[in-house]
Amino acid sequence: MRRVLRRGLGILLVPLPSPLSRPPPPPIPLAALLLLPRRLDAFSRRPFCGYSGGRAVEQFSDDEYDHEYEDHRPSSSVANIDEWRWKLSMLQRNAEEQEIISRDRRDRRDYDQIANLAKRMGLYSELYGKVIVASKVPLPNYRPDLDDKRPQREVVIPLSLQRRVEGFVQEHLDRSLLPFDKDSGKTESGSEKAEHVNLDEKQDPLLDESVMEKILQRKSLRMRNFQRSWQESPEGAKMVEFRKSLPAYKEKERLLAAIARNQVIVISGETGCGKTTQLPQFVLESEIESGRGAFCNIICTQPRRISAMAVAERVSTERGENLGESVGYKVRLEGIRGKDTHLLFCTSGILLRRLLSDRNLNGVSHVFVDEIHERGMNEDFLLIVLKDLLSRRRDLRLILMSATLNAELFSSYFGGAPTIHIPGFTHPVRAHFLEDILERTGYKMTASNQLDDYGQDKVWKTQRQLLPRKRKNQITTLVEDALQNSNFETYGSRTRDSLANWNPDCIGFNLIEAVLCHICRKERAGAVLVFMTGWDDISSLKDQLKAHPLLGDPNRVLLLACHGSMATSEQRLIFDKAPPNVRKVVLATNMAEASITINDIVFVMDCGKAKETTYDALNNTPCLLPSWISKASSRQRRGRAGRVQPGECYHLYPRCVYDAFAEYQLPELLRTPLNSLCLQIKSLQVDSIGEFLSAALQPPEPRAVQNAVEFLKMIGSLDENENLTDLGRYLSMLPVDPKLGKMLIMGAVFRCIDPILTVVAGLSARDPFLLPQDKKDLAGTAKSRFSAKDYSDHMALVRAYEGWKDAEREGSGYEYCWRNFLSAQTLQAIHSLRKQFSYILKDAGLIDSDANTNNSLSHNQSLVRGVICSGLFPGISSVVHRENSMSFKTMDDGQVLVYAEFCER
Predict the structure, then answer these.
(1) DSSP 3-state assignment of 748?
(2) Among 159, 364, 168, 336, which residue's Cα sits nearest to residue 326?
(3) What three-state secondary structure class fits 755?
(4) Residue 298 in contact with residue 280, Cβ under 8 Å?
(5) Which positions ≥6 away from 204 have C-beta within 8 Å?
(6) CA angle 196-198-203, nearest 5°?
(7) pLDDT, tens digit (0-9, with 9 covering 90-100), for 140-183
(8) What is the mean pLDDT of residues 878-902?
(9) Span 197-218, mean pLDDT?
(10) Would you place residue 198 in the very low, low, confident or very high pLDDT band (cuts 50, 70, 90)?
(11) Angle of helix 205-232 versus helix 159-177 axis, rounded to 10
């Protein structure tokens, strides 16, 4: 049986699930999948999820109450309703009260009338099992504090109370360790007995503050003693001497004075000056030395996970501590911190998550936002929120740090905040552009030896054809003009011939291989950092280099990769020194420009491009493809060399192309779809998304905002008034694109989560199916075996992953990948993402620990495909068959082209 859905320009035929052997659930029309009902718990009576205060929790079902009252409810009590009318009136008049909670059986009996009464009075009500709540504000679907049957409880206590409890425990331990003089009532240290303080919230608040102050002062004293003892120790003194050699240390007193005098300060510092590791540490040391260590709470954001972890580890080492003591880190699904952590390094997203539940950042004294020059979407979003927060938190200090000299832009955004520049020190780095490289190495470029393996040239060509002409001209015109106006007369004929054949759309794996061979054979010792555009290029180039007799010899060259999707343990390998007589070669993306520092790098190779999302708001068309970097990024890459000795930078493009680069990269907020961002903005309970984004450093186009809002309404995460729906609240909790987040939620609702986890992870990572230039037919045949008869890329991915998991259990995973033209590293990345998404869904209460329950319908491929379709909506197309051809049409774009390597029928 097939159901026809008429949408826009085409008709989509979707097979419905076939009947099951056991009693089937009600038929699931595609419309039900595409338009998720406002109340998700209507799909199932099993424990489900609600939203409360930015946290996801499990919804309960009170079967006992249902049994007792569902069929035999007595008639309503008029007196009880009158009493509730009086209660609700008093609630409206009392400005300090927010809600009424009742566990009375009579009230449950009369709940329908109470709910109608509350609604007429402009209030909100909800029945949580045996508990009724009436409130001035909208209520969540679930309240964990009212669930008597919840096996685990999440207790949130005020920070002040938490500190008091910790203080009393510490004081008890201190007193138990010191001999006590009964006659004097004092310990041998001379401290008086602490008076018993009742923890009842109604006690004298002045007494609370006094006791808390005393406890924190005592803790601050211990922190100061430890800090001094470390700095005076031989190891600590040696570390201090090293830190004094950094340029940032010479500006220590000026920086601390500026931070003390100003609420906002902007600091720019060249690569290697030590601003990231030293500035937050200066503040912490100063607070500890002044006896205020226990009162400060410093947060330092980093744009990437690896930098947050690496910097935290370095700072804790410089302080002579274990990670998790006074210094810790927190990234998504991972972190090391303790109750005594006062300096936390985290990603920008982690701080934004905290701001969702704590708009005032209570207890935080200093916020450092590092690498603001990258202009990531999260960083620009964070600046809007922090700027609004500063007016409410006059005591909060905000320090913005940039690796480039465009500090004036950020200074003016914060009302003329003072700026300080820290000059960096690096050894001189000699730059070689493409014409110099060709002249020096004798390498000759032809039209054929620039085609990169694995079909990259073809992929890029396809992507360029899909770009609007206006955008293509903006990217390429200056470069093309620069090449035409350059004659390279001072170079030899061989070099000029090579430059005439140079293809600016290729990375040139063979050129990189030739330069690496030149470095390994003729240059001095030192590690090499190669900047690539993305994981596809890194993986393909690594495979090519492994096959080289010199570069693939592990006794002579250590090949490493650096990418955000890699496991933490693998990422940390890039910081280790190579064995003696072995040259380390690191293949990295632009994350190595400024976020991390690899100290032994001497040689840098810069391809001049980075994979970047571009967005045409007029046509609502995003596209991810390699784009030319800016001059600032090129200088950053060059600065990675020369940390330990004079360095060399090989720019794999002509100097005239560099001269045509823009000075700075376009901010991410202006070149990407805003769907996820707008969802996060609504989580802050903002009335108008457009008004909020108009306060950005460089506001996006109104049309881009309008497109995002319309999309969120279309998928059901916003209602017509731009308020978050139940689905929207769940989606805002998932760190993925809203389409993929909806797919995960639907997979949980329809109990087919395992294949959906694989699909979402695959769409979040990259295509694991390899396409070698010389074995395209064999690779295509291998992929077609996974697509079976359904001609589905998504189901092919699911089958390929499941086959790999089976092979891994038997110890033949790499052989399986080699035989089926699959990337083992990509499949491992998909495996890691699956686990991350699974943890998030469990935390949200969408799935439980019982895999059988979560996957009771995973075998139903029609259902799985329907869930995939519902998640990708409206990005779906209908097939229009003609006599000798077929075409594809979508709702918004009409006829579209299909990627050449999909599983064709």
Answers:
(1) helix
(2) 336
(3) helix
(4) yes
(5) none
(6) 125
(7) 776 767 766 554 444 555 666 666 666 666 666 565 544 444 34
(8) 70
(9) 58
(10) very low
(11) 60
Sheet holding 124-128, edge to edge: 99-102, 131-135, 124-128
Q: Show the tokens assigned to 407.
A: 């500090």
What six digits make up the tokens of 132?
């009724």
Q: Count CB neighbours of 282 within 10 A.
A: 18
Residue with tokens 């008597």: 148
Q: For residues 47 and 44, give the distance between their C-alpha atoms in angstroms, rounded to a whole number.
A: 8
CATH class of domain segment(s) 63-146:
alpha beta
Q: pLDDT digits over 414-431, tens only?
A: 999 999 999 877 788 999
Residue 45 — pLDDT band, cuts 50, 70, 90? very low
User: CA–CA separation, 350 vs 903, rounded Å?
Assistant: 39
For residue 190, the SS3 value is coil
Burial of residue 109, with CB atoms counted within 10 A of its CB: 0-12 exposed, 13-18 middle, 19 or more buried: middle
DSSP string, 223-256: HHHHHHHHHHSHHHHHHHHHHHTSHHHHTHHHHH
Can you name the CATH fold of 429-666? Answer: Rossmann fold (3.40.50)
In SS3 terms, 76-129 reads as: CCHHHHHHHHHHHHHHHHCCCCCEEEECCHHHHHCHHHHHHHHHHCCCEEEEEC
Query: What's the pLDDT tens digit per position in 684-741?
Result: 888 899 999 999 999 998 989 999 999 999 999 999 888 999 899 889 888 788 999 9
222-422 sits in which CATH class?
alpha beta
pLDDT at 207: 44
Tokens representing 442 are 């004798």
| pTM of structure | 0.68
| Nearest-angstrom CA–CA distance, 719 and 329 | 37
